[in-house]
Amino acid sequence: MNNNTKKPYNHGEWENKRRFLRFLLKTLAFTLLVRLQRVEGLENIPKSGPGILLMNHIGWVDPIVLVHVVPRNIVPLAKVEVYDYPVIGIFPKIWGVIPVQREGVDRQAVQSALEVLKKQEIILVAPEGTRNPELQRGKGGFAYLASRSGAAIIPVTIEGSTGYPVIRYSRRWRESPVEVKFGRPFIYREEYKRAGREDLRKLSDEAMYYLAGMLPENRRGYYSDLTKATQDTFDVI
After folding, report:
1. Residue 2 counted as domain residue
2. Does residue 120 fall inside a structural domain?
3. Predicted confidence (pLDDT) per residue in 137-163, tens digit
4. What would the pLDDT profile of 106-129 be if each residue is shown by its tens digit?
5. C-alpha span between 151 and 56 (Å, rounded)
6. In DSSP terms, which residues pair with 159 in a beta bridge?
7. N or C: which end of the chain has fewer CB within 10 A?
8. Within 10 Å of residue 110's Cβ, how many Cβ atoms?
9. Sign of the CA dihedral with 99 first, then 102, 107, and 110 last
10. H/E element, 78
11. CA–CA dist 55, 125 (Å, integer)
């Protein structure tokens, strides 16, 4: 018997566990971690079906903020090192965060993400692979997942989360409340369902320009020139 055989993803088991963890987060932890001032566009979160939240990533607490505010359970993808953080590393394991090796193509992470999407869930992706104050060129992994699964991509921007968590009611807490905005979802066209490397690059860049258009100019980085933005590969829904 092979003890290394990967256990199939159990949607119901994880859903129940995450509902309980979200209750604890909302009632006990979140108000001590972040001052959340405004959330816009929650109506853009599909009520059902697979989805990929595509976020700009500027602060350590960004995934926690989105787990808190999104009305459905979400499954973040995160660098594998988060599992090894002292004390807090237990929480990604309990939640079922998908660990990703950042060097090369992590086929196991890709397969795990596709399994979650197949169960009609939402995953959370930081397309740059790390935190940055300005957008860097996005990696193509999310485009691969979206094109293969047919999942809608929901762009989401976060502002004010840099430096959190902080002491509640400190100067930092008062001066930098966190704001979240969800944009209209979009879906890649059918002809890109088997997109190769070159097409995936275009799929990724077009999605990133769409995300950049929701950000203030000082956050757009690599995608600052919105005159280069095109929408040849996807339709807004």
Report:
1. no
2. yes
3. 999 899 999 999 999 999 999 999 998
4. 899 999 999 999 999 999 999 998
5. 19
6. 179
7. N
8. 17
9. positive
10. strand 74-79
11. 6
